Amino acid sequence: MSDFMDYKHAISIRYSCRSYLPDKIEASIVEKLQASITDYNLLSGLNIQLILNNGDAFSGLSKSYGMFSGVNNYIAMIGRSNGIHEKEKIGYYGEKLVLEATEYGLGTCWVAGTYNKDACVCKLGSREEIYCVIPIGYPAVKKSFKDKLINTVVNTKKKPVKDFFDSKNNIPDWFLEGIKAVQSAPSAVNKQPVKFSFTDDTNETLPSVHAWITSNRYGTEQIDLGIAKLHFEIGASDVDWEWED
Ligand SMILES: Cc1cc2nc3c(=O)[nH]c(=O)nc-3n(C[C@H](O)[C@H](O)[C@H](O)COP(=O)(O)O)c2cc1C
């Protein structure tokens, strides 16, 4: 993760943007995003690609691509078809890019369903597939009527903090901070299908955190989990702890 990036701030202002201005993304920002993508591909084995100046995957009015307007760029989240934890990695590294783009003043939206996969112009290796795309660009200044309608239909209201863990006395502050960051995470159909628990530290070990999905209905829950785990790491970054799994 870039040490100088204010990921907590990005979490506090991010939202799913579905209307974009036609302006090209500034070259210096493209360079920074491209550098992150190269890093994350090396770290994860994913094949993330930034597609610029091509909105074909969002043009046409069938299949509700019309939910989006002005999409000219997107990040194609590509990984191996049967890779271990591939969906979780897609969520984790894709959300890093989302938060970085947010800090650069760009709008983003995770999209698993409402786009035309066949019209994507990225290059797939053998046994690779596109799991999701993330439109990226300068947000239209005012939220459009369409944005407002979608926010009402999808219901962007977040679950209460207590629903992300099974109640336990004396929840430590660092754990609660992690959960608050999870509460603001994007998730498919806003289902937020994730829960977290922690085990206290002992003399020899750090406190550990376990995270899991609470349903498996849409096939996107492991992506939601990867996104939520990144948010937890950012929210709980003031103390040392480790993942249990
Ligand atoms: C894995 C994933 C897939 C998503 N797929 C779509 C999609 O196909 N179309 C869409 O309009 N929004 C999609 N979204 C965006 C969610 O609807 C959005 O994150 C959620 O409603 C919460 O709103 P917020 O991101 O503004 O906090 C997706 C989000 C995630 C994480």
TrEMBL record:
Keywords: Oxidoreductase. It holds the Pfam family TM1586_NiRdase. Residues 8-236 form the Putative nitroreductase TM1586 domain. Transmembrane segments: none annotated. One of its GO terms (molecular function) is oxidoreductase activity. Belongs to the nitroreductase family. This is Nitroreductase. It comes from Aminipila luticellarii.
